[in-house]
Amino acid sequence: MKIFLKNISPFNNREDMKPALFVIKKILAFWLCYIAGLFIAEGVAILLHFALGKNMLAGDTFDSRTITLITYYGYAIVIAVTMFYRKKIEKKSLSEMGLTKSAWSYFIGILSAVLLIFISVGAITFTGAIEYCGIFERKNWLAITLFCGGFIVQGTMEELLCRGFLLHTLKDKVNLNIAVAVSTVMFIIPHCSSLFASEKIYGLIGVINLVLISVIFSLFTVRFKSIWAACGLHSFWNFILYSILGLNLSGNDENVTAVFNMQSVGENIQNGGVYGIEASIITAVVLGIFAILLWLCCVRKKKLD
């Protein structure tokens, strides 16, 4: 038992162990970096409140939009903790988990986000489950810009942990399918609380969509040998959906500052109900087709190589 615990301990850089133990160790390290980063970020947020004259003990806090922005930018601390762990504990280079110097594929991720959202939202709007209500007359460009930066940080954090820290380092030690499965499960877990906040059907479709988008992120990571394309797709999917189209993002129903005013019509499996299009059956079809096409491209490239 002592040897077992020593092997899976995330506080050493040992790798000479069975693949199953290595997977367990990486999962423990994943949660260590994630929870430690969130804990530090929470402390910084509390200090920020007091520094700016907000007494949290008396319920005096910033408005929900500001808190959301603080949360998103606070994920930079999770990124820093993960990078510190990688360099100082595992004693490995950052490039080995997908943080390569060549980041041009980030723009491929952005273009993919535009394509996937255009097709998904367009198809849902065609069914009448989403309606276009025009352009907001008063647009808060500062808030939109700040949210863009926040989503860049948030998307990078999730991809660094799931596709970089897990997938990119596991795939050289275990079967690629196992590496993808582990990163996908770790990606889904933090979303579960909001996924099943309403009817189970939306939670079920939402999980299917999370699996599909996670597979797409993984295929991008394998195809480009970096996490940049996945980061671009992840961050700008959230930004376009929330701050450009003004639609519900992952169950976040607060008032948004956006360019276009698009609204869900009722709650149904076409628009994903209160969770938004990420729990839509139409989005599942679009993501499924894109995943298959991307997989075929990866297979073709592998044959040519």
- Which word captures the global form? globular
Q: What is the SS-derived class?
A: mainly alpha
If you compute it from the alpha carbons, what radius of gyration comes out, rounded to the nearest whole angstrom? 20 Å
- The whole-number mean of residue pLDDT values reads 90
User: Helix fraction?
Assistant: 55-70%
The end-to-end span amounts to: 44 Å
Q: Compute the number of helices.
A: 10
Strand content: under 5%
Order of helices and strands: HHHHEHHHHHEH
| Biggest sheet architecture | 2 strands, antiparallel
| Residue runs with pLDDT of under 50 for 5 or more positions | none
Largest sheet: spatial strand order: 1-2
Please report the total strand number as a whole number.
2
Q: What labels describe this entry?
A:
10 helices; 305 residues; globular; 66% helix; mainly alpha
Provide an overview of this structure.
The chain has 305 residues and is mostly helical. It is built from 10 helices and 2 strands. The protein has helices at 2-8, 19-51, 64-89, 105-127, 141-170, 176-188, 192-195, 200-224, 228-244, 281-304; strands at residues 130-135, 260-264. A two-stranded antiparallel ribbon has the order 1-2. Helix 4 (105-127) runs parallel beside helix 9 (228-244) and helix 5 (141-170) runs antiparallel to helix 9 (228-244). The longest helix is centred in the first third of the chain and has 33 residues, at 19-51. The protein is globular, with a radius of gyration of 20 Å. The model has no long low-confidence stretch (mean pLDDT 90).
